[in-house]
User: Which sequence fits this backbone?
């Protein structure tokens, strides 16, 4: 090895160790940056020149130093894919639990409707006790009408709250759609930048980190997953088996369906890719919201309607003409339209004379296994049970997502202690290379400036 080759070897080491320290510093600087993936310098030895025959050796001489092969991004494709799936599952469960928790609050507790029904039964009982044909029964009849209207008003309020919740969820879904389309466009732009940057031979690791973080947001919103594209550095984003992002080209999603609730028979709300009429099998929050609009909230409205129709059918069936409960729009009785339209003078305690069979029959509905009370308890219990189960599921999937995030972080995140050890290693190697450079320089100084000085 010539002295000048020694200088080249020492210089290559200085350059390589400095690059390695830069990468370690970048890792440490981004230890707390969300979505950052640890980087590592990969090196390889540089082969030396072939010796000439005059050197007295055959083959290769001492190597020519070290070089940086690449700055690798330590991504874990399997862990990242698992996190995308877990994130979508957790978002779906969370959205479902959130809607059901709101519905449970809208019910107002078991005592709300039960209390109104109890007061109505008490009014009918009071009518039976009062003289049903005498003047003393007039006040009792007014009370029956008032308490009956309280029950009807409670049902209308419940239906109105459910309808308002539907509108809120529909608005939230519209906002989500806008957000998804914006993120998809950003992912496509980053794909384009990554391919262009890596095409020049420069790394685009920070761009890839930003892109992957956006993909996880899409996983939460619509259950998206990413698929690498033929080693170019770009990824496709797939939702429900269809591409939302195809390399550098972003698609968009649209919402189809009603913009206002029309009761328990409200048509389904669907999401599709722009330009397509086929429903897209979304996941994540979007799936929870569309499920709420198409199934959950219409089902809740149906629960309110069953209580209303049971009440109207059974009380009206006992009372006869005129009916106690009717629809304020002249149609079929629902929770949204029920009203106690009867006048106090038309309220009957019995069929004739001092008979109180009608009032007694209404009071007995409170004990019936198919009466309004039973319908209400069944409705409330089923809704509360579904809300509780959804909350448990949301907690479990959130825990699974946290676990998946922990696995990804452990394999791709920055361990500051480990980086500090690497930094010290690179520092010592840099110092060693500098010492080699000094030694070679001194050798050359002796050779050039001091040879032949002795004996002068």
Assistant:
């Amino acid at each position: 090895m010539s002295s000048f080759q020694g200088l080249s070897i020492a210089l290559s080491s200085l350059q390589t160790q400095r690059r390695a320290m830069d990468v370690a510093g970048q890792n440490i600087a981004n230890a707390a940056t969300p979505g950052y993936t640890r980087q590592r310098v990969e090196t390889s030895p540089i082969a030396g020149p072939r010796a000439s025959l005059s050197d007295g050796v055959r083959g290769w001489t001492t190597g020519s130093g070290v070089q940086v092969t690449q700055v690798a991004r330590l991504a874990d494709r399997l862990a990242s894919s698992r996190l995308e799936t877990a994130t979508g599952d957790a978002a779906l469960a969370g959205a479902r639990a959130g809607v059901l928790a709101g519905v449970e609050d809208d019910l107002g507790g078991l005592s709300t409707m039960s209390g109104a029904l109890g007061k109505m039964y008490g009014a009918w009982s009071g009518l039976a006790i009062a003289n049903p044909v005498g003047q003393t029964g007039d006040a009792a009849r007014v009370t029956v009408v008032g308490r009956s209207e309280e029950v009807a008003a409670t049902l209308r309020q419940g239906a109105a709250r459910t309808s308002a919740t539907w509108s809120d969820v529909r608005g939230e879904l519209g906002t989500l759609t806008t957000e998804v389309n914006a993120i998809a466009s950003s992912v496509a732009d980053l794909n384009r930048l990554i391919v262009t940057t890596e095409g020049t031979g420069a790394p685009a690791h920070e761009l890839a980190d930003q892109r992957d973080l956006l993909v996880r947001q899409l996983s939460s919103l619509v259950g998206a997953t990413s698929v690498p594209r033929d080693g170019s550095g770009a990824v496709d984003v797939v939702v429900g088996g269809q591409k939302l992002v195809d390399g550098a080209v972003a698609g968009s999603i649209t919402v189809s369906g009603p913009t206002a609730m029309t009761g328990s028979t409200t048509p389904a709300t669907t999401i599709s890719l722009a330009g397509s009429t086929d429903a897209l099998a979304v996941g994540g929050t979007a799936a929870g919201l569309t499920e709420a609009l198409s199934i959950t909230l219409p089902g809740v409205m149906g629960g309110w309607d069953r209580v209303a129709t049971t009440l109207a059918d059974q009380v009206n069936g006992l009372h006869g003409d005129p009916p106690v409960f009717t629809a304020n729009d002249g149609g079929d009785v629902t929770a949204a339209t029920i009203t106690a339209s009867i006048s106090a003078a038309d309220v009957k305690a019995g069929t004739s004379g001092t008979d109180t069979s009608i009032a007694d029959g209404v009071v007995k509905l409170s004990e019936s296994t198919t009466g309004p009370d039973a319908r209400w308890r069944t409705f409330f219990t089923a809704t509360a049970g579904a809300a509780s189960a959804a909350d448990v599921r949301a907690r479990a999937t959130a825990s699974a997502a946290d676990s998946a995030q922990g696995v990804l972080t452990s394999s791709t995140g920055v361990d500051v202690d480990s980086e500090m050890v690497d930094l010290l290693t690179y520092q010592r190697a840099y110092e060693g290379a500098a010492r080699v450079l000094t030694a070679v320089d001194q050798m050359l100084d002796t050779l050039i400036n001091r040879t032949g000085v002795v004996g002068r």
About this structure: The mean pLDDT is 91.
